Amino acid sequence: MPPGYSSGDTERFLPETHSGARSDFARDRARVLHSSGWRRLSAKTQVLSPTAGVDFARNRLTHSLEVAQIGRELAASLELSQDVVDTACLAHDLGHPPFGHNGERALNEWMTGFGGFEGNAQTLRILTRLEPKHFSPEGDSVGLNLTRATLDASCKYPWALEEAAPGSMKFGYFADDAPVFDWLRQGAKDRQKCAEAQVMDLSDDIAYSVHDFEDAIVSEHIDPLFLTARSGHDSLIRTVSDWAGGDFSTDELGAAFDRMAHSQNWLTSWDGSRRDQAKLKNFTSDMIGRFARTSIVATVTAADGASLARYGAEIVVPREIRAEIATLKGIVAAFVMQSGRRQPTYRRQRSLLIELLHTLEEAGPHELEPAFAADFRAAQDDAGARRAIVDQVASLTDQSAIAWYERLCTASLV
Description:
The chain is mainly α. Helix content is 57%, strand content 0%. It folds into three domains: 7-184, Hypothetical protein af1432; 195-342, no CATH class; 344-413, no CATH class.
């Protein structure tokens, strides 16, 4: 067992015995890698949908691999279990439905009044219930039955919907998953994320910010010439500030932009040449290294020799680094997610999912896959029935959601 971890950290909700040399944490990692939910990530939206015809853009699976690469290196530098952090990074997006955050918005709208929908809460549900591997003596699925430390590291928002901050829809578990959530949080302070979850979260932020920026340039949603030009610069920073929700002043975000723009690999134009591709790739490498190194130094300094494992210390990300990450994210949001030309597509995606959900509800269990049909039949109320339908739709890839819609919804119009 790695230093700083106890026998309680390797406990599983359903006790198991094993032979062989693999550690409990390494076994967790293998279970996620071999899960069907993890394979489906290859056909789910990161920023650009796999159905959009852009064959080089990242999807949720490649993003998760990149997050895990960053997380594993951070864990090694901070003397945390690399397997725990790696597994949490690999699993962190399992709960995302078709069409990414846009699909998440549609499913949450449909579940208003019935417990809501949140991708991170769905991740916990998949790991502890929906991905079949182990069953209790009573016949209930306990999902992959991961260790307490790994499940806790995968929990980005350790609170319920009712405890979410005003105006926020971020939460970590659904009401009927409370028993396993309470189990995995034994000994934890209310709402406090363990160090491994904080590293997962930071790794996700780093990968998300630099790689989505890279994809947006390669797909020509962002013109580096426009970014470099001072004309319209103030307006861009204000847009980034609005996206960041007021966490940073425009002066802080402008200074963050200027620091990154002074990188020797900052692009001032883009023609798709190998030289430009290499320069862009080296810019992303520079930023990943800067964000990670600065945070490692700040964290180790603050810990002052204490073990960070589990709840030993906090991960420290300096404010200027958080501002730079927010700036890259905000630029992508301005040019891609909030772009006027993308809004009709987003509306069609949400409409497709809402209509599919209504159609499945009217059909009852007959159009659901067997596992979800069984959950629907076992539901005690409308909320439980809707949850079974949402579990089904959330499991679909972008393409399969479109195929289900065409089969079930458009056929009814003929």
